[in-house]
């Protein structure tokens, strides 16, 4: 798991060409103006999901993981807490192989992710996004899915 400012994306873009393409989308798109939706970058190998939502109570947020994709989660506007942990002996609640997610039960540590910051979640990283910081607020986030 990585948490950093988008200013430092170059430290991670050279890990793979696909990560570089994902960071390129983030850095060359007008993310304040872009509409909510899914945007192909390289077919199913790399695509971006632009989201807008209200943050929630932790009890309403899911601990999730992925096996086929790395997530770049870039916070365009707003701030949220994310629960984080690595895969271990967490109990699986549900999964969808085609949509590449598994929901887990488990404890997490917390990070605060504000505008201009991004996280990288690899297959061993579990994350619980969308948690409110104080009052419920609106967030705009881009999740770039990078196929392994």
Question: TL;DR of this structure?
Answer:
It comes from Flavobacterium kayseriense. This protein is mainly beta.
Distance between the termini: 15 Å
Average the pLDDT over all residues and give the rounded result.
Answer: 96
**Rg, please?**
14 Å
* Unreliable residue runs: none
| SSE sequence, one letter per element | EHHEEEEEEEEEEE
Q: Tell me the structural class.
A: mainly beta
Q: What's the tally of helices?
A: 2
How many beta-strand segments?
12
Q: What kind of sheet is the major sheet?
A: 6 strands, antiparallel
Shape summary: globular
Which bin fits the share of residues in helices?
10-25%
Biggest sheet strand line-up:
1-10-5-12-3-2
What is the percentage of strand-forming residues? over 45%
Protein name: YhcH/YjgK/YiaL family protein
InterPro entries: NanQ/TabA/YiaL, NanQ/TabA/YiaL_sf
């Amino acid at each position: 798991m990585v948490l950093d400012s988008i200013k430092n994306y170059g430290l991670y873009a050279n890990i793979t060409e696909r990560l570089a393409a994902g960071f390129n989308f983030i850095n060359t798109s007008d993310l304040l103006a872009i509409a909510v939706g899914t945007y192909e970058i390289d077919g199913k190998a790399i695509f971006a999901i632009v989201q807008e939502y209200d943050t929630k109570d932790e009890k309403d947020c899911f601990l999730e993981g992925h096996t086929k994709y790395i997530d770049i989660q870039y916070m365009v506007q707003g701030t949220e807490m994310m629960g984080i942990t690595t895969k271990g002996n967490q109990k699986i609640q549900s999964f969808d192989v085609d949509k590449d997610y598994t929901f887990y039960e488990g404890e997490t540590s917390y990070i605060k992710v504000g505008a201009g910051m991004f996280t990288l979640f690899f297959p061993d990283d579990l994350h619980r996004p969308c948690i409110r910081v104080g009052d419920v607020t609106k967030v705009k986030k881009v999740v770039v899915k990078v196929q392994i």
